[in-house]
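Study both lines:
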Amino acid sequence: MNIGAIDFGKEPLFLAPMEDVTDPAFRLLCKRYGADMVYTEFVSADALIRNVKRTEQKLHISDVERPVAIQIYGRDVETMVEAAKIVESANPDILDLNFGCPVKKVAGKGAGSGMLRNVPLMLDITREVVKSVNIPVTVKTRLGWDDNQKIIVELSEQLQDCGIAALAIHGRTRAQMYTGEADWTLIGEVKNNPRINIPIIGNGDVTSPQQARAYFDKYGVDAIMVGRGTIGRPWIFEEMHHYLRTGELLPEKSFAWQADILKEHIEKSIEWLKDERKGIVHSRRHLANASAFKGIRDFKPTRIAMLRADNKEELFRIIDEIPEKFGIE
């Protein structure tokens, strides 16, 4: 599968862009364990052209991450075009347009999945951004605004006509947010549309190697984008690739191994933010969802203690005491 001149090979797996998750520290871990492409957190076009420091930080990428995509969102043509040019100067491999974020502060202002209610503007933005940069432009969006407006089949053709190099589809409407099950039937319909000739990337509820295999086989997508299933488990890409190649599951990683990766991630977050407390706070979503802690009985007080810890020494002490405290080998 190719996006522009980038050859991803057969059945590639991408790390989905996620706010407060896909920072440089986490992207590097996912890349280490087999992510074929990683995406930055989404970047506000408005903030970018206003030189907001925290937003500009999101453009920091390294060659080790490549191929890497930077994703932007906004709600007017001029701002998105200007932001796209700034992003291009950061030298990513791909520029992605976010027309899928469902959160109120984005969609409610007409950006992200809010664009699904103003398709002409979405197409104008896409067309002009494609013309303004010399790197491949891709789009990530949803099935539609709600169950009564599932427009993705027609929309995919319109976006393709704007010149995008690939389309990622999350199998939910904006109204669903992240609830319910992702519906891949329309993703499959887009992929099997004879008028579609760009790669179609499926996204939504792929959280196991078996699901990745089943979704490739059933819906024929060119790539799968993995989102929430990576949180606290960046090695899921290694597990999925192994299963896709062999049909066999890798043995479960030991608690000690998983804990070491989690601590490495925390240390890299501290290094990235140059602040111990901020790095720990930024890592709390991974701590709360880490697979190493799932299934441990009576773990809630320890989980709370971990999430309240605000220095590395205390946090690592709590993690290191877990095997003896809960009888984990």
Summary: The two ends are 42 Å apart (CA to CA).
